[in-house]
Amino acid sequence: MPESPVAVHDAILLQAQEIADIVRAIGDADASRRPESGAWSAREVISHLCQSDNESFLDGIGRFVLEETPEIEVTPGVTHYTPERHAMTLDDLVDAFLRQYELIADYVARLDAGQLSRRARIALLKDSPLGEYPTLAEWLRTISELHLHGHLEELRARR
After folding, report:
1. Rg from Cα positions in the chain
2. In order of start, what are the domains of the chain with their CATH numbers?
3. pTM, whole model, 2 decimals?
4. Residue 28: HSE in the Cβ half-sphere, 13 Å Cα cutoff
5. What is the mean pLDDT of residues 112-121?
6. How far apart (Å, rounded) are the C-alpha atoms in residues 145 and 149?
7. What is the pLDDT of residue 2?
8. How many Å apart are CA 26 and CA 40, to the nearest integer?
9. SS3 135
10. Is pLDDT above 80 for 139?
């Protein structure tokens, strides 16, 4: 992850925009189809990156700042592809994704060193190199460099 909050802001926006461009280029009909490998469809990937309607990455990031060592629940492998999201046009779904990551990037750009050093408990990371009590900076690195970037690479491979 880049060092400064502004660099993190830029990295998140750049990746989110590239994901949006790829998914729009796939087109609405093909974005609903799963590849032969059985991987998620492009629409499912976008929905997954938006997270649930009840809690987003931005909510979790905010909890690092507002709460003392909050417990952040992360459930991998969930698309959050609801009937409501299925009914959305591809452009509307992609726009919702972009709005969320613009909000995340703008929030991150305003964080200071003290906020970036705050910790949360994320049980999913217990056996990872980060451990189950990552700093906000480490969590942002995970979101940007691993999660967002991993889905970007997956979508690039479909071109």
Report:
1. 16
2. 5-156 (1.20.120.450)
3. 0.90
4. 9
5. 95
6. 5
7. 43
8. 14
9. strand
10. yes
